[in-house]
Structure formats: structure tokens, C-alpha cells
């Protein structure tokens, strides 16, 4: 674990560092880089750009701005966390969690209690951070949220995304961000609860996980939905299989949300060199709270 510090970024000189870091994180499409002038304008109007630095080298950033969401009682203010990026050399150093924790503190100081952002639900690393570590939940699936993306990480697949809700004043979130957070769930916790995977995964001849041909019936109130442990690697090896996963999980999560299930947790377990990633979908009061 490397030592780094988190600080607000407000000057044009440091915003240029954020531009450059974006090119490292999302290579291949200059048009997808949020430019300096947009970052500066957002910061001067209630937005936040936070950077993680090792000495004076930027290794991560998070960028968001105030927004409005429609409710039955009219528009309601929130913080939209638009983008977070970590340098490729520092993705296992805890930088993302530290940036989000600093964002949590700043947004609470602004008097807001709700933060939203999007991420690809097939990325286990992101799911583990957003759902398990930070305590966000999800009830919203957005098809092709950003249209056809051209950067090296997203090109060629529909840009489907989860929009997560981070209710930053709730005990759930405060517990996860405290100095003594709830341990993240492992397969042993799941097994001791009696919960079984919603569907079995098949394995191709080259060892890649294959989705079921059909989404099963939703018969239980607590479901385990498994995804590939490393979707980026799977996509690089078998693009057609990656598309199969996209369309299977699209049907799975859209159906789940229509039936009032909520994504409430994520299990990522190294599993002795055979890593597994599984979403926990909760209906009503069903929960694994004994592990909270």
C-alpha cells in the first residue's frame, strides 16, 4: 500500500493533470476527455474535483457536480458523481475508496444527502467498491446510457449502466465508511446463510464463464446473481461471449428491478485463485443483515 494524500483540485494547472490522467485511464478517444474549462466551470459552480497524489504526481481523481432529480414532490437536489479514474499503476492501492470517502465528507458539508453515479454492472472491481465497500444500492438499469463509446475500455459493447444511489447519511453508508467498517461478504458467509446461486454458470472449453441461455424465474426473495470475475479479460478473449453476457444481464437486472428487487451487496472472493463475483438482490425486508 502506497502513501497518498487527497486534496481539492481548483487551479487550471492541476486540472490539466486531470486531463492527462483521463487519457491514461480511458485510452483511445480524445473526445471522451472532460476538458479543463468544463472542470473549472463545474468547480466554480458547486462542483467538486478531488485528486489523489503521491508527492506531486496525480494517481486518481473523482469529479462531480450538483444536480436535480425528479420526485413526486418536485425537483430535489443531489450530487452527480460523474467520473472517477485511477492510474493503471495504482488500481489496487485503495485510491478509489479514499477518493469516495473524501467526496462523502465534502458533499455532506454542502448539505446534500444523495449521490448518484453510473458504472458497468459487469465490472466486478467496480461493483465491489461501489456496492460492498461504499454501501451504494441500485434499482436503476440504463440501456446504452452513453451511446456508442469509442475508448479502449468500452468500444464495441452497448454502454449499459447501473445508476446507483448513495444515501450518504444512512447508518448503512456511515458504517462502511467508519474507522471500523463492516467486513465485506465472502463465499463462506453466503454458504452459512443457506443462500444458493440464482443460476449455475457454464464454462467454455477455454475456461471462460458463460451465461445461462435464459433468465430463471424469480421464486425467492434473496438472490445471488453471478457475473464474470474479470469481464475486461473475458471481453479481450471472446468478444461474442462478452456480448452474450451484456444481453443476459440486461434482461436479468431489468426484470429484477421491475419486480422490486434491489441490488444491496456484492461478494467478491479470491476463492483460492478461482475468483468469483456475485450480486445480492434483495426483495422487501429480506437481507443478510446478520453480516452487517
Please state roughly what percent of the residues sit in beta strands, choosing from under 5%, 5-15%, 15-25%, 25-35%, 35-45% or over 45%: 25-35%
Individual helix count: 8
Note the main sheet. Answer: 7 strands, mixed
- Radius of gyration of CA atoms, rounded to a whole number: 19 Å
Terminal Cα span: 26 Å
- What is the helical fraction, as a range of percent? 25-40%
Spatial order of the strands in the main sheet? 1-2-3-4-5-7-6
SSE order in H/E notation? EHHEEEHEHEEHHEEEHHEE
How many β-strands, per DSSP?
12
- The assigned structural class equals alpha+beta
The pLDDT mean sits at: 91
**Global geometry:** globular
The low-confidence runs, each spanning 5 or more residues with pLDDT under 50, are 288-292
Please tag this protein with its features.
3-stranded antiparallel sheet, single chain, 30% helix, 292 residues, disordered C terminus, 8 helices, 29% strand, 12 strands, alpha+beta
Describe the structure.
With 292 residues, the chain is an alpha+beta fold. Helices cover 30% and strands 29% of the residues. The chain contains 8 helices and 12 strands. It has helices at residues 12-25, 36-43, 95-109, 124-133, 171-176, 187-193, 231-237, 239-258, and strands spanning 5-8, 48-54, 57-71, 74-86, 114-119, 137-142, 161-167, 202-203, 209-210, 222-227, 261-269, 276-283. The strands form 3 sheets. A 7-stranded mixed β-sheet has the order 1-2-3-4-5-7-6, sandwiched between helices. Strands 10-12-11 form a 3-stranded antiparallel β-sheet. 30% of the residues are buried. The model is unreliable at 288-292 (pLDDT under 50).
